[in-house]
Fold this sequence. Notes:
Layout: H1 5-11, E1 29-32, E2 35-38, E3 44-45, E4 48-49, H2 61-82, E5 90-101, H3 109-124, E6 131-137, E7 146-154
Parallel strand pairs: 5-6
Antiparallel strand pairs: 1-2, 2-7, 3-4, 5-7
Helix pairs in contact: 2-3
Amino acid sequence: xxxxxxxxxxxxxxxxxxxxxxxxxxxxxxxxxxxxxxxxxxxxxxxxxxxxxxxxxxxxxxxxxxxxxxxxxxxxxxxxxxxxxxxxxxxxxxxxxxxxxxxxxxxxxxxxxxxxxxxxxxxxxxxxxxxxxxxxxxxxxxxxxxxxxxxxxxx
Length: 155
């Protein structure tokens, strides 16, 4: 099998879910020229929020990384839907913003964000190397532990 995004997903044992519908008054993606911006994606798995709570008290770093990975899977699901089902149209992942629900003393947001970054580099290869912000926030929608948004270049 050719080395494609789809084949790397298969090798990683990942099946992208259907792109989630917005939970409020926004659209899941916006395309502007050759730029695709996703709305923030939560750590949803099998239609349910998989990881809730604050890093530093209720959630450990390893679980936070798993939550960030789930968010990244959902980012790719949104990108796939926006690109007509064709992930090969991704030119490059330009930027990830990772929001981490954190206790005030928690300072390892960057380690949590690696759950998303590592996964996207694994799946997208060199196209997945990206700029990133990892931001601690006091709360996220539905008490999610992590939320991730992405900006892609469209090939």
